[in-house]
Amino acid sequence: MSHPERAAIRNRLLTAALLLLGALPLRAQDGGAIARRYKSAADRIIAAAMADTLAYSRLATMTDTYGSRLSGSPGLERAINWVLARMQDDSFANVRGEPVMVPHWVRGQESATLVSPRPWTLHMLGLGGSVGTPPEGITAPVLVVNSFDDLAAHAAEAKGKIVLFDSPFPTNVPPMEAYEINVAYRGGAASAAAKVGAVAALIRSVTPHSQQTPHTGSLRYQADVPKIPSAALSVEDAELLHRMQNRGDPIVLTLKMQARTLPDAPSRNVVAELRGSERPDEVVVLGGHIDSWDVGEGAMDDAGGAFAAWEAVRLIKALGLKPRRTLRVAMWVNEENGGRGGRAYRDQHLAELPKTIAAMESDNGVFRPYGFRFQGSAAGLAVAKQIGTLLDPIGAGLVEAGDGEADVGATIREGVPGFALSVNDSTYFWYHHTDADMMTVIDRDDFRRCIATMAVMAYVLAEMPEELPRQ
Ligand SMILES: [Zn+2]
């Protein structure tokens, strides 16, 4: 028996034993000593969150007033100013914007127009970071391929053409896994197409569902390959062109993009605190990202997550709870097209990371929460699972090992335990990076449950005398 096989059997036995333990009736009511100690505080927090109206109204006010918040945009800076002012109103401590230089990409006017076999205005969005076209645009024949392999097989036909990757979003795996697979085309289409002589690259939008909504997002140019313009088409339009090719129709389109990258711009991570009553230098940080793409109003991705964390701490404060450790709300900037906010936070707080108890983020939409994905030690996970049982009343008590979110990644890599709010993300990628990411996506009750879930976990982590075990 090979080593991996033996390990697999051991894991199966362990899983069976854990399932048996989990099946004991004790667990459902009693999460252990820590959970018993904080049951009444958790119930108060949940009741307050489930009656909350302020977070939704603030979320709507900010997103409707300032709109989308791409790094470098005036809308982002105005939104940050507004949040900082409201945090002052809330009497948080140490309310501040921590400086971060961010990339400044601007979309400009753009269009993709089918010339042959018939005129048609295609539904498109340029990809973040793309170069533009000449002012008159690029008019060229189109080659549709299914995949990178398919392009390799047809490399000889690609020269001088606009290559369209019509690679569908996998539906046989969970949405986040499907995204990780499919997003390779958004990132890599331009350089793959340029290598075989293409003049522009298009992709089928990265989504399982579409109503003629194109999805933007970042691309990555390889350093040694010419930069060509790249954009996403709606699923419908990608399939349309693919059908035309299959019928042997000659496809020609004109792509016009004014996209350009300006010098880096100053921005800020938003930070505010409820200082700890006994150990203020020990910190539980929780948040989401304040920036968004330049489409829709970024209500779901990720103002909702950032505002859930903000309201979680505001409610704890309003209830008169004074946890031992500091609760810090963070709204990281530039998650979407650079990740500079998350790295700047790690760098600017490096000295205190040994005393940072946990880093928590919500960036999967504020849909119905299940609990958390945890990154850290087995001992830390066991404690987090205990605390999780306090969220069973709202169905959000599931804590399991899993991937974290982007902004806290750099902090977690320094040894800080990580918590990612886990939600029902079955429709997340329908709206992700589109004009449809509006307040309409936000369900008030699910949003309240997200606030409750972040608040209970963060409160107990900050209050319990024991430190959450690290690696
Ligand atoms: Zn996001």
Can you give keywords for this protein?
471 residues; alpha/beta; Aminopeptidase; 2 domains; eight-stranded mixed beta sheet; 38% helix; elongated; disordered N terminus; binds zinc ion
Rounded mean pLDDT score: 94
Give the distinct bound molecules: zinc ion
Number of domains: 2
Overall 3D shape: elongated
What is CATH's topology name of the largest domain? Answer: Aminopeptidase
Give the class-level CATH name of the largest domain: Alpha Beta
Task: Characterise the protein shown here.
Helix content is 38%, strand content 24%. The longest helix has 21 residues, at 3-23. The protein has an eight-stranded mixed beta sheet with strand order 1-10-12-11-13-16-14-15, sandwiched between helices. The chain has an eight-stranded mixed beta sheet with strand order 3-2-9-5-6-7-8-4, sandwiched between helices. It is built from 15 helices and 16 strands. With 471 residues, it is α/β, with parallel strands linked by helices. Residues 1-29 have low confidence and may be disordered. α4 (39-50) packs antiparallel against α15. It has two domains: 28-105 and 264-463, Aminopeptidase; 108-258, Glucose Oxidase, domain 1, CATH 3.50.30.30. It has helices at 3-23, 25-29, 33-37, 39-50, 54-66, 74-89, 148-153, 175-195, 235-246, 299-318, 340-348, 378-388, 409-412, 428-431, 444-463; strands spanning 93-106, 110-116, 120-122, 124-126, 138-145, 162-165, 200-204, 230-233, 252-257, 260-274, 279-289, 325-332, 356-361, 369-375, 398-401, 418-423. Zinc ion is lined by residues 289, 301-302, 335, 363. Zinc ion (ZN) binds next to α10.
